[in-house]
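Is tryptophan placement plausible here? Inputs below.
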Amino acid sequence: MAKPVLISGIQPSGKLHLGNYLGALKNFVELQNSDKYDCYFFIADYHSLTEDFTPKEKKAQIKDLVASYLAAGLDPEKSTIFLQSEVGATTELMWVLSAIAPFGELRRMTQFKEKANIKDDDSLEVDANVGLFTYPILMAADIILYNAKFVPVGYDQIQHLELARTLARKFNKNFGKTFIEPQPLLASTPRLMSLDDPTKKMSKSHPDGCLFIDDHPAHLEEKIKRAVTDSGSEIKYDLENKAGISNLLSIMSTLSGRPIAELETNFGGQNYGEFKHALSDLVSDYFKNYRENKKNILQNNELIRQTLTDGANKASAIAIKKIADIKNKLGLII
Ligand code: AMP
Ligand code: TRP
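Reply from A.M.:
I modeled the complex. C-alpha cells:
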C-alpha cells in the first residue's frame, strides 16, 4: 500500500535557530527515517519574499537552507527535497484557493497580526504587504497539492494548517472530493521559548533570544550563560514559576533523549551555572557533525543544484497531474 504523504517547508530567511530545529527540522529527519511516510520537504522561498531581502541575500539563504537540510540528515534518496518556486502549479492552486478563502479568517490570523503590527482587529488600515495576508493560502496550496495527510510544524503554524483544512473541505464540498484534509504533527518541543524572555517564543524577529544552530560553540555558550533564569537555585521543571529553567531543561531533554525527571535528579544539588555549563557542552557537541557536514555541502554547489533539480522534477510530475484534475473539477477544461 502507498505510504501517506508528509510535507513541510521552512522559509529561507536567515539563520535557523534551535526552535526551528526542535520544532521542525529534527522532526523532519526522524519522520523521514521512520520509513512510514512518502516525504516532501521544501524551501519556502516564495513565502520568504514577504520580508525585506536583496537578491544576493536570497540566493545565499536558499543554498544555506538546502545545506542545513542535508547536513541535518534529510536525504534526497529518501525524501523529495525541492524549491517551492520551481513548482509552478503551487501558485496556480493558490489562486484557485484564494477564490474560496474566507477574508475574515485570514484577517484574524495571529501571525498576520503580529507581522503587520496590528492592534485594532477591525481596522483595515494595515501597513503591510498583501503577501503577508495571503501567506496562509499559499501554504495551504503547498500542502494539499500533494495530497499530504501529515504536516510536521511548530505550534505557531497550527492556525495556518486549520485554514488548509478549511479550504480542502470547502473545495471538496463545492466541486467533489479532490483534496485530503491535512493534519499537523507536532514535535516534542513544538514551542521553544526565547532565552532572554521565556514567556515569548524563540523567534528570529528577536535574535537576542535565539540560539542559532550554526553558531560557533563559544557563541552558543555565551548565549546560554546569559539566558534568563528564575529566582531560586533548584534545577526543577516548573513552567509557572521557573519558566527559564524549564525551557533549558526541555532543550537538554530533547537533545539528550533523557526524560526531564531524570535530569532533575541528575542535577539535584547543582546550581544554575553548572547546569548551563553542561547544557552548553551538550549543544555544542550535538551540532558538531552538523556544522562539519554543512561546511562541506556549502562548498558543493553541484550537489545543492542537483538535489533541487531532482526534487523539482519529482514534485512537478505529481503537481501537474493534480492541477489538471483541479481544473477539470472546476469546469475549466473544455
Ligand atoms: P519559519 O522559520 O517561520 O519558516 O519556521 C520554520 C519552522 O520552525 C516552522 O515549522 C515553525 O513552526 C517552527 N518554529 C519556529 N519557531 C519555533 C519555536 N520557537 N519553537 C518550535 N518551533 C518553531
Ligand atoms: N509557513 C511556514 C513557516 O513559516 C513555512 C511553510 C510554508 C510551510 N509552506 C508550508 C510549512 C507548508 C508546512 C507546510 O514556518
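Short version: The radius of gyration is 21 Å.
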